[in-house]
Every structure is written in C-alpha cells, then in structure tokens.
C-alpha cells in the first residue's frame, strides 16, 4: 500500500505548476509537503485526488490509478473551509459521509466520538456559519477522516487554530497514522512538519528542491548549529574559519558551522579562556534548511 | 460504491434540503393560496360588493320613455335599477353628488319626436353603464322610428336576425376554428408554465451550484463524486422539486375545479380548452417541457459553475434568461399567427424549439418529420451542452477569480483538458 508519484508534471498553458515530481509514500507514514505560497502544493494534491489531469507522468495508489471508484478510501481536507454554511453539522457530515460510502448510522456513531474527542459535542445541531473559524476547521477535519480513509490528504490542516486545538488535531493525526493511514500534509509551519513527518519534500516554484527522510536531510545538510553560553566575550568566533553565521544571544552566541568537526576545534579554543556554562551542538532546524534551500533557489 | 449510488445520494440531498427549506414552503403556499383565491373569486367579489343595485334616477320629460326603458332594462340587466324621479333636476344632481344615487338620466324628445338623453354621474369612467343605457335608448328609438314608418315589427326582427356563418378548413386534418380556439388556450397555459419553470428552476440550479462553489464545499464534493454525476444529479434533483411543486398546484387546482364544477363550466374553461383537448397535445406538452427544462438546466449548471461568488449568478445567467424571454415572446406572437414563416423557422432553433414547436404542434397539423427533426436537433443540443457543460463544470468548480464572465468558459475547458 503506497502512493507513488512518477515524474509528475502539470502545466497550465505555458506556466509549469509542478515540475517532474517523483516520490513514494509508504503505508502508515506521514509525508510533509513544504513550500511557500504558490509552490504547487495544492496543485499536487488536486492531481493526487484526480481533480486535475496530469500533463506528464502518473500517480498510482496501490499500483492502480486513483479515480472515483477509489474515492471512498481517500480523505481530503482542502486549504479553504469547504462546508455548507447554512447546514447543520449533523446533516452536513451525514451527506459528506454518505458520499464516501458510509451509512447514516455509521456517520452518526463516528461523529459523536469525534465531537467528543474535540470537546465540542454541543455543535452537532448547530449551523456551520454559527461556529468560529477554528471550530469550523475541526468539523472540516472530521469530514475528512470520518470514513476512516486509507489515504488522507491534509492541505494546511493547522491554519487558523489556537495552540490547544493544534495539539488536539495533531494527536488525532498521529492516531490515524498509527492505525495505518498514509497521510500527506502540507504546511508552511516548519515545526509541525519536523514534529510529525518521517519524510518530506520541499517544493519551490513547482520543483522539489529537497526530498527524503527528515534525518537524512538534516545529516546531508552538513551544517550544524552550535550554542555557547559563556562568561567571556565570544566575538572572536565570528571570524573563525568555518563559522558561517554568528548570532549574539543574551548569555552567549549561536553559531552555524560548516561541519561537526569544527565544533571540536572551537571547544579546544574556548578552553582556558573562561567559564563555559553551555556548549551545545544541535541538528539544523528545518527552518534553516528551508530558508537556505528556497532562498538559494531564489538567487 | 457504485457511481449510481452517489448520483442518488446527491439527488436526494438536493431534493430534500430544498423541499424542507422555508423558501420552498412559502412560495408553494403562496401559489396555492392564489389558486384557491382565484377559484373562489366569485364569492370574494360578492363579499366586497354592496348588496344594493346601482340606482339610477330617471327624469322623463317626455312622459312616454320611462316605461319601455325600464321594462327592457329589468329584463336584461340585473345590476341596475331605474327610479322615476319626481323632484327637480338640480335636486337629483345633488343626490348624485352626495352618493345617494348612482347616476341621473334626463330623457326627452327632440323636434322629430325621437328620444334623446343626458347622463350625469360623478365620474364617467364606468363605461359599461353608460353604453348599456345608450344601447337601450337606441333600441327604443329604432322601435319608434319603424312604427312611425309603418314597418311591421316581424320584418324588423327578420332584419336583425344574425346570419349563419360557418368557417370550414379544407386542408385535411386541419383544426376547426373551434378546436383552434381551444388549442390556443391550453397551449397558452402550458407555454406559461414552461416559461416560469425554466426561469425559476434554472436560476435555482445556477444559484445552487454557485453556492456550493463559493463555500468551497464543491472541492470536497468533486473529490468524492465525478463532476458530471454531480451536475446531472443536481439537475434531476431540482427537476423533481419542480415536479413536486407543479403536482401540488395541479392537485389543488383539480380539487377546486371539482368543487366548483357548476360555477366554472363554460366561460373560462371553454376558452382555455381544458375540457376536450386531444391527448397528443398533452403528450407533446410533457415531452417539450422535459426537454426544454433539460436544455436550460444544463446551461444554468454550466454558467453557475463559472462564478466565484453567489452575487454574480444573475449577471452571468442573463444571456440564458434573454434566450428564454425571446422564446416566450416568439411563442406569444406565434399563438395568433402560428403559420407565419418566422414561427416555422424558429421552431427548429433548439433554444426556441420547446416553446415554439410545441405551439405549432398544439395549434397546427405539423408534418411528423418536422417534429422529429426539431426533436432531434433539440436532443442533440442537450447532449452537446451536457458534454461541454461537464467539461466546463469540472474546470469551473476549481477556478476562482475576481470577476466572472463568459470568457471563463474557455479557461474552464482548458483547465479540465488532459493534454496541453
């Protein structure tokens, strides 16, 4: 069970929205799509769902093409809220659930559990337009997962939510993954992708600029972050060869260094100079990688 | 799940949410109320009209005219009562002004001993009373004049006897003028229903599609059912809604007709030809109705899929509305001259066929090949628009822009194209 994108290209007229994208998302995996606005994330999702035809290449799910016969095992949460504003939550989900092959009673049982889980059981008879944006997003999320999809596509699932609700939704996503659902999701919040995804892809102007497992990407990036807290001036490190970035902190500094080995040299250089309270070698954050890669692509 | 199943889910959702909606309830209730009101019009008019007859004072200066006038009015006109007035003309005029009398007529004889009359009323807009009086006095004059000339009253009666004038159509199968009148009535009614239905339900489809699109729920819908399934289910769902409304209206009308049978036979019904119209007219009516609905519904769904905001619907369906209006105007002209060239030609243009060809088959004897040809063209056009519509729909529902125009049809088709 896996989703495979094979050299997928999408052109609108002369504009290339997605350029030669290949990837494989195994079962029970969470895959993150990163990219700025207009990078091609939504277009890729629409192609996976079969809403847009592919200009070149192909997309398969379990070896066969995705079409309306497989749509019952796919869940989709679009970037924009997509609900009937005038319809009650219950009627809404019964309709959408039925369209995904559920019976009315199945929908109602599941809906009760989900509303309970999201701590909003009183919304069942409310119209969607009466709910706040964040609560609408919860309903939207339920509509995407109520039929227990095997493949779940989440386009910016956490936008517009407060931190508590982000946690609620994140937990739900992780549970679904553990139950065997393959999840593809997009975000421009790096920390969410970093926290949730094993594999990821950074899209820039339709082309994948970074792709692979989170650990590999970080390792192959090479550069590390070094945080030093000390009682002496550290400005001299700015001109140290191999130090790429220097940022002054209240209690010391944060450095980006070319490679791991350099940290040993810096450690030695600091010895006997004064009291070092913290010397911390860290993996680069996804944010650093994103800015570097996408920034580089801009130049 | 089989695709057919999704068709039914969308159809029943469309139908049920609309049937349960307040607007449907209110509009249907209003229409039914009007039907009941029209059927009981006689009672309602009686309720408001005063019991008193229209009293008209007569001052007869000749002394011989009142009796014959009174006699003939009593026998022909129930609503008017003549009173021989004894007081002066001025007093009578005052009473008319105060509203105690409806009007005043002063009768006298001129120099030739023939009657003449002056009519006084507060206003002379109620033409019927005046002309009725004028006619009656004219008749008295005729009687007096012929008596004077010594002509026998029997001869006079013979002179005024209407001649027998029958109209006969020679072409075989052509309708007799009586049949034509009846056909005109039923055709008129059915054209009107078609016009209203296409207008109301066409707009409803376009608005519905636009609502789903603007609320972005469309993106979820088309990810679980194909756009063409969705479009067709929507069209059929709203058609069923329309049928529900029409059946309700017909049922109430039927009950009203049954309960008012005695009062209503003749007049109205004879004019509208409901009593004995041939079955074929009804069959044609239903066929053209359904096809006409389908054509415009497909068009409406296609146009609705292009707009990004519900407010833009009216603007974008204007061309469609104009087509319907032109079709209706043509058929209104054609109802009085069904054989004219323009009607014959336009009955083959698919947008006008449902109304204009129906008018022709309802009123004339149209060769079967002509009907078949127009039906073929119509069905072909519907099929074409369903294919184009589905294409536009697929692209259109994913397309959001600042303003919508008909140019977007091209963009939408491009968006749904396989290869570029």
UniProtKB/TrEMBL annotation, chain A:
Gene3D superfamilies: P-loop containing nucleotide triphosphate hydrolases. This is ABC-2 type transport system ATP-binding protein. SMART domains: AAA. The keyword Transport applies. GO terms for molecular function: ATP binding; ATP hydrolysis activity. Keywords: ATP-binding, Nucleotide-binding, Transport. InterPro entries: AAA+_ATPase, ABC_transporter-like_ATP-bd, ABC_transporter-like_CS, ABC_transporter_ATP-binding, DrrA1/2-like_C, P-loop_NTPase. Belongs to the ABC transporter superfamily. Residues 3-230 form the ABC transporter domain. The lineage of its organism: Bacteria, Bacillati, Bacillota, Bacilli, Bacillales. It holds the Pfam family ABC_tran.
From TrEMBL, chain B:
Pfam families: ABC2_membrane_3 (PF12698). It is a multi-pass membrane protein. GO terms for cellular component: plasma membrane. InterPro entries: ABC-2_transporter_component, ABC2_TM. Keywords: Cell membrane, Membrane, Transmembrane, Transmembrane helix. The keyword Transport does not apply. The chain crosses the membrane at residues 185-210, 231-257, 282-304, 316-335, 341-359, 371-393. The keyword Transmembrane helix applies. GO terms for molecular function: ABC-type transporter activity. Residues 22-390 form the ABC-2 type transporter transmembrane domain. Signal peptide: none annotated. It is found in: Cell membrane. PANTHER family: MEMBRANE COMPONENT OF ABC TRANSPORTER YHHJ-RELATED, MULTIDRUG ABC TRANSPORTER PERMEASE YBHS-RELATED. This is ABC-2 type transport system permease protein. It comes from Ornithinibacillus halophilus. The lineage of its organism: Bacteria, Bacillati, Bacillota, Bacilli, Bacillales.
């Amino acid at each position: 069970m896996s989703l495979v994108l094979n050299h997928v290209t999408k052109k609108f007229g002369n504009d290339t929205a997605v350029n030669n994208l290949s990837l494989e998302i195994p079962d029970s995996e969470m895959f993150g799509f990163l990219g700025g606005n207009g990078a091609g994330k939504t277009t890729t999702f629409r192609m996976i769902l079969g809403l847009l035809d592919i200009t070149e290449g192909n997309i398969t799910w379990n070896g066969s093409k995705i079409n309306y016969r497989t749509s019952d095992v796919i869940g989709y949460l679009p970037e924009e809220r997509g609900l009937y504003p005038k319809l009650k939550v219950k009627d809404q989900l019964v309709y959408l659930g039925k369209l995904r092959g559920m019976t009315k009673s199945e929908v109602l049982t599941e809906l009760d559990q989900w509303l309970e889980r999201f701590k909003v059981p009183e919304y069942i008879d409310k119209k969607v337009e009466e709910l706040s944006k964040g609560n609408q997003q919860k309903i939207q999320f339920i509509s995407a997962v109520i039929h227990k999809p095997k493949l779940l596509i989440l386009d910016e699932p956490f936008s517009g939510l407060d931190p508590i609700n982000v946690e609620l939704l994140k937990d739900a996503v992780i549970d679904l993954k553990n139950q065997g659902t393959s999840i593809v999701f997009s975000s421009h919040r790096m920390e969410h992708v970093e926290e949730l995804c094993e594999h990821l892809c950074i899209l820039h102007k339709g082309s994948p600029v970074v792709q692979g497992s989170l650990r590999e990407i970080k390792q192959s990036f090479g550069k590390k972050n070094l945080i030093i807290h000390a009682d002496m001036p550290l400005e001299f490190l700015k001109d140290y060869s191999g130090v790429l970035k220097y940022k002054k902190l209240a209690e010391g500094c944060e450095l980006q260094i070319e490679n791991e080995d350099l940290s040993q040299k810096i450690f030695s250089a600091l010895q006997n100079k004064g009291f070092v309270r913290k010397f911390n070698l860290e993996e680069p954050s996804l944010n650093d990688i994103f800015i570097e890669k996408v920034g580089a692509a801009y130049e | 799940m089989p695709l057919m199943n999704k068709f039914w889910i969308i159809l029943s959702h469309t139908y049920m949410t609309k049937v349960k909606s307040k607007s449907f309830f209110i509009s249907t209730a209003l229409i039914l109320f009007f039907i009941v009101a029209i059927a009981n019009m006689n009672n309602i008019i009686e309720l408001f009209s005063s019991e008193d007859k229209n009293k008209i004072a007569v001052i007869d200066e000749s002394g011989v005219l009142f009796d014959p006038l009174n006699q003939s009015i009593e026998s022909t006109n129930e609503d008017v009562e003549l009173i021989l007035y004894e007081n002066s003309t001025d007093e009578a005029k005052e009473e008319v002004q105060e509203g105690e009398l409806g009007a005043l007529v002063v009768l006298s004889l001129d120099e030739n001993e023939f009657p003449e009359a002056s009519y006084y009323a507060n206003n002379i807009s109620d033409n019927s009373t005046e002309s009725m009086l004028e006619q009656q006095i004219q008749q008295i004059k005729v009687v007096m004049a012929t008596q004077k000339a010594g002509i026998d009253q029997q001869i006079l009666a013979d002179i005024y006897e209407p001649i027998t004038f029958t109209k006969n159509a020679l072409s075989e199968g052509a309708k007799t003028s009586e049949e034509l009148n009846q056909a005109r009535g039923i055709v008129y009614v059915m054209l009107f229903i078609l016009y209203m239905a296409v207008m109301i339900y066409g707009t409803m489809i376009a608005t519905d599609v636009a609502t789903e699109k603007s609320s972005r729920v469309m993106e979820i819908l088309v990810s679980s059912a194909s756009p063409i399934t969705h479009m067709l289910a929507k069209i059929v769902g709203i058609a069923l809604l329309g049928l529900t409304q029409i059946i309700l209206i017909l049922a109430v009308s039927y009950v009203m007709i049954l309960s008012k049978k005695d009062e209503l036979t003749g007049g109205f019904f004879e004019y509208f030809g409901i009593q004995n119209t041939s079955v074929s007219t009804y069959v044609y009516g239903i066929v053209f109705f359904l096809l006409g609905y389908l054509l415009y519904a497909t068009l409406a769904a296609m146009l609705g899929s292009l707009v990004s905001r519900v407010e833009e619907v009216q603007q974008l369906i204007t061309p469609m509305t104009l087509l319907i209006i032109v079709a209706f105007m043509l058929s209104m002209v054609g109802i009085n001259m069904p054989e004219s060239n323009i009607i014959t030609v336009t009955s083959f243009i698919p947008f006008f066929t449902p109304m204009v060809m129906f008018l022709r088959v309802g009123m004339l004897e149209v060769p079967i090949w002509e009907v078949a040809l127009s039906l073929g063209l119509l069905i072909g056009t519907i099929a074409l628009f369903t294919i184009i519509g589905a294409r536009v729909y697929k692209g259109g529902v994913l397309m959001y822009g600042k303003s919508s125009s008909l140019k977007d049809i091209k963009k939408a088709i491009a968006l749904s194209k396989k290869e570029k």
